[in-house]
Automatic annotation (TrEMBL), chain B:
Keywords: Transferase. The keyword Phosphoprotein does not apply. Residues 14-124 form the Glycosyl transferase family 28 C-terminal domain. One of its GO terms (molecular function) is hexosyltransferase activity. This is UDP-N-acetylglucosamine transferase subunit ALG13. InterPro entries: Glyco_trans_28_C. It holds the Pfam family Glyco_tran_28_C.
Amino acid sequence: MVGKRILAIASGGGHFVQLLRLRPGFAGHSVHFASVHPDMASEVIGQPYYSFRDVSRADWWRVPLTLFDLIIILMRVRPQVIVTTGALPPLIALALVKPFGVRTLWVDSIANSETLSGSGRLARRIAGTTITQWPQLAEPGVDHWGSVL
Amino acid sequence: MTAMDTRAGNAPDVFVSVGSMMPFERLVHAMDAFAQAHPDLDVLIQIGRGRTEPAHARWLRLMPPAAYKAHVVGSRLFVAHAGMGSIISAIEAGKPLLMLPRRQALGEHNTEHQMATAVHVGCRPGLYVAHDETDLVVRAAMLLADSGTAPAPISYFAAAELTARIKAFIDA
């Protein structure tokens, strides 16, 4: 496939469901998906899918496992662009690629309608571009481009 | 006590999901009690990593995406936490959703964002918010008697304005 190598990555549950709804935005490129449940491969048949071990602030001691999985995925995909809908593991991936000139887009989850997510607040400094799905949360450095619904 | 259900087969009358990421004991307890009070109804609960194994409802921990979608479509009533995966699944299926928001104050999530979701997303047609467990079982019975408005079916993709800008970002 022609085009750029895109890594579309998200945690489980609603994060990945939102990422799937962004697929028309990836048209014409070579898209590699990554999330936490191996089962989700069935949602992106015909495109490469990788799973990684999840971590959140509540179980932060699992970070080394997630870090290991993410490094393997990044070395295999060698993405030129990363798009994510959160949460903590993709933020780690964005931090890992920051020195390498990878273009990165953080789409804050639609579940955060009154404040940016904790990861989203950090993403403002780590991601190349950070956007919110709620117009009332737009601020300097955080644009609103629309929502997944 | 019922055994963990391994049949992915028939859609239940009432399909309940706590999502895939964290346990939600309050929802499981309430809907197991609902199953006890309505022995004529087939209630299936996806309990995730929860500690409580339902005694009256059928249950399983996590099912593959295809089975999950089939249960959302095939059940008479879908009940879930106020998580975006559940909400988007219901809207994509054009299925009414009754949701009980997780409370940070009760240790059910990291923040109170599901209360915000209940206000800002729960106002869409076809979505119903329960304030607590008592309200939940009353609304469940009411929605089974009259399933109310279904969400307007939407496409499986985000608004074109958003995906067009994402495409422009990638292409640049």
